[in-house]
Amino acid sequence: MTAEEARAAFLVWLAAERRASPATLRAYEGDLARFFAFLADHLGGLPDRAGLGGLALADLRAFLAQRAAAGASNATRARELAAIRTFFRYLARTGGPDCPALKLLATPKVRRPAPRALTVAETDRLVDEAETLTDEPWIAARDAALVLLLYGCGLRSAEALALRRRDAPLPGDDAPLRVRGKGAKEREVPVLPVVREGVARYLALCPHPLVPDSPLFRGARGGPLNDRLLRRAMERARRRLGLPERATPHSLRHSFATHLLASGADLRVIQALLGHASLSTTQRYTAVDETRLFEVWRAAHPRAKGA
């Protein structure tokens, strides 16, 4: 089998077995295409599947060096290396080869920025006034319901937009919301009464027929609401309410986690609510909280000026 055939089989496996999203598939395809193009030039030809296992540490370091020289950031190179490692793990599980040199290669260090959460006051204003930001009542109710879901349940935009009519959390039902997150992993999220009431208001006003399997949130013409329209609605809210640029749909998820942490919620609980596979991802929110504590100290302490 050629290396290209192995790559094609790997992408099929990602889609069918791992249920990777289209965006993830595109990223893996591009990362491996760049790696294979480098190998073909660096080695004078692309090795076959068996030959891939003989790559040396120097070959892999040369690839990362070339990518750095081309302007790829540490984050980009770390992602590309993760794609290569996943590809070789797939090869090892399907008859080989493994690549021992990969185990010796250090991942480029990436400093992940702290999540950009809104303040409690900014979030309160958005939640309170979301239903006043457009003249069309049902669209205003839709936008308000989405804001409540994103902030009240900590959902990703894609998770909220993927909800079906049968998933709608409504008053009188205390059942948690079942959410399908990244990697098709499901989790259960508790739903506040105010969120259920907001969704019920939207459903009562929505002029489009909603059968159980249809998308819960609709665009103005009745089609499924997409992320671009959601971001446009948030841009409109920023302008009308004077909110900062960091006020995006995803910032509401960050605000959910940050405000829970500031109120004393356990980090493991926040991890489960957000659907993070790793606690280290959730721990980024501690940096946000510590930063805010320092800002409060600087503003309030009489000896803090100039510190």
CATH topology of the largest domain: hpI Integrase, Chain A
Oligomer: single chain
Largest sheet: 2 strands, antiparallel
Biggest sheet, strands in spatial order?
Answer: 1-2
Number of strands: 2
Approximate shape: globular
- Could you say what the CATH architecture of the largest domain is? Orthogonal Bundle
Radius of gyration from the CA trace? Answer: 24 Å
What is the straight-line distance between the termini?
A: 64 Å
Helix residue percentage: 55-70%
Let me know the average pLDDT: 87
What are the segments in which pLDDT stays under 50 over at least 5 consecutive residues?
none
Written account of the structure:
The chain has 307 residues and is mainly α. It folds into two domains: 3-104, Tyrosine recombinase, N-terminal domain (DNA polymerase, domain 1, Orthogonal Bundle); 120-256, hpI Integrase, Chain A. The chain contains 13 helices and two strands. The protein has helices spanning 3-16, 22-42, 57-69, 74-93, 120-129, 137-153, 157-161, 193-205, 227-241, 249-262, 267-274, 279-282, 284-300, and strands spanning 177-180, 186-189. Strands 1-2 form a two-stranded antiparallel sheet. Helix 2 (22-42) crosses helix 4, helix 5 (120-129) runs antiparallel to helix 6 (137-153) and helix 6 (137-153) runs antiparallel to helix 8 (193-205). The longest helix has 21 residues, at 22-42. The radius of gyration is 24 Å and the shape is globular.
Question: What order do the helices and strands come in, and which of them pair?
Answer:
Layout: H1 3-16, H2 22-42, H3 57-69, H4 74-93, H5 120-129, H6 137-153, H7 157-161, E1 177-180, E2 186-189, H8 193-205, H9 227-241, H10 249-262, H11 267-274, H12 279-282, H13 284-300
Antiparallel strand pairs: 1-2
Helix pairs in contact: 1-2, 2-4, 5-6, 6-8, 6-10, 10-13
